[in-house]
């Protein structure tokens, strides 16, 4: 029912705007025809009426710069309001409300939800607003009722039309074809005089008393036998010529179009007038053709009309069939017009009239820019460079926007436990900008945000509404839970929109509008005032306390005043939601991938097959199934020795096909199959790792794994006889293939900050313990393309370079996110593009017992010495640990394939008084941790400690620096803790 109501509302909205636009154009043409009735030819009048007819089927939101409605749209004075929950700093308001948690460390004051008792009306606004209104009550579904009446009426009209048309077709089938005789000769003569390319069929009927023509593509003229026998020959010529004129003008084809439009708009008074006017004018056009071509004189024409009308009682199915006389065109009016010698008559539409009609069509047919419409993907890439855009701003306005953006950035800086953005200086700067540029919507929006944060909700609402009204376009986005319920009053710390400019095929993406401290309204929406151009989303924060799944739009544009961005589905992290069901089409992980819910799928030259799933039990044994609930005796792989199954759940996913040499894995992802949420954000302590690409190890602590999961793989497919060269990690190592030679010319620990082909490396190598660097030369004339992989000693694989051409080039340095001492070898393979595949609804074998909740603590007994250790207590999650003398690292950085630790210079490490411990693991999992130190007896209690970490899909690295010498530390204890929605 909700879908039906929504559809009815949308259709009603379209019909409403199409109705008033068509009525407006019909009224204009009505007045124009009255004023020019004696000087305008019937042909031109008919053309203008056809423009009105086309207007009825023109989309009401077809926006063209030539359209008069596009420039004078009533939407531009419409206020769209919605209830809003405002959040303001609790330090600046006395309102009593519920505190909202913030996970931003810089926000020392919690945000408070406040609902103001104000209502502001902006009659000049056409934007989504931040108004406060009462929550709407459930209303009667008038749209659904009216749509039902409309559809019933349409069905009745269709049924009547079919009935009447079948009667006419029956008359035609029972008539006699004429291929000779006087009438046939006269038909050929008149057709020749009217310069018709083909002759219609002529029939004589005893079943009708009304002459008519029918058939849009195979025209037929039906002549009643009564009229053929009783009218004089010259009168028959007039009747015949009139029907031939209809055929010559394509009136029958236009009649079908008119009929279909009339069926859709049967209820519209303007259509009633238009239908009558079209049929009158159509007869006038045919009358004028006969008089202009001297096929009849006015006196005899009038006599023929009277004689034919006196013999006719049949009502024709106009305009599908066109007769000589009919009730909707009074004989008296037609006779007066025929006898009026002062009228201008034309047998066709002249060139100036055609130009006039086209100009009026360009003005009248376009509609208004739609009020709301989903944004559409687009591209700026053209055949000859970037596609030019009309959007440009002058240097003064750009400088103003850049100044506002700098102000917005202060939202993330603190001074005396308060945001710099919320200080008085920000208001002064923004007011100064608005004094100089009163219509600067971006400054208005930021100032409105400032007033909201400082508790003045009335002024905040006014400024925000003015901003939305002054902006060329407003982008809106809705945040909702999986069950469709909007999230209200939730902070979104930052959204940044890139407003692109292209001039002379040169792309300038530097104009970025940063919106900060956004709050979702009662519909879960935020509204962003922007320029009218092509956009990209540069930055988008998660809603406070939620994870979100954003759709990657790339470049997009808005065809409406209020462009609606795709809804953002959110969920409380690690909450294991079960109140909704996701689909592959909705999931960003699956919608562009090739997938199956069976055990086998084909991708490129390879066939991928699930060999089976092994699930550990508490005693370390395995239950093995095929992924669809059927038991298997064994897997075609060696199962690991599980020693931690009492507190850790394990599932091994085996790919029995293809052979390991036929593919490589770039990325792996597991989803909860019902919700399509990535497993590591679905429940805390769930993750996976793999060193054998045919066996992916899924595991979980605290909670058992979901019963059904989806496996998503980004793979490189290789043919059976591809080359794969193993290259040793040393300078001078080479590989040759098909006339191309590959050689390592540089390989060292760490990486440099810069390099040029002329001057070489800049500075000293950094991150010696966590990264390495290489340069390769490829020579040879053949156009081969290669990929280079690095393989660690524990089996991890990284694709370093996805493609070279062998044209005697010296490569630039490649940074490897792996220390040199961990590299086992390199592999050179053909270049192929990665593709995404997935296995949906993989059923895991059941685990019979729950997990123990008390986890063991990992202990690293360093005994005051520098040591390297690895703990397998949570295997396959191996925790690597290292202790060092001095404050070794200055920071860390994370990349897609790993991390790097930046070392301090030796002279800045203070090894006598400071120490460093580092630990990391390679697994896709999210957990909290607690790190404790046990010191040797006699160690002073004083001494600070700092820590930092980096994480990614590859895993986590954590560094702790102590203001104590390493010799004083006895033991380091690492405890894993579950994450909660408030982390």
Automatic annotation (TrEMBL):
Segments crossing the lipid bilayer: 14-34, 46-62, 140-162, 349-368
Keyword vocabulary terms for this entry: Membrane, Transmembrane, Transmembrane helix
Keyword Hydrolase assigned: no
Record-given protein name: Regulatory protein BlaR1
InterPro entries, alphabetized: Beta-lactam_resp_regulator, Peptidase_M56
Gene: blaR1_7
Residues in Peptidase M56 domain copies: 15-336
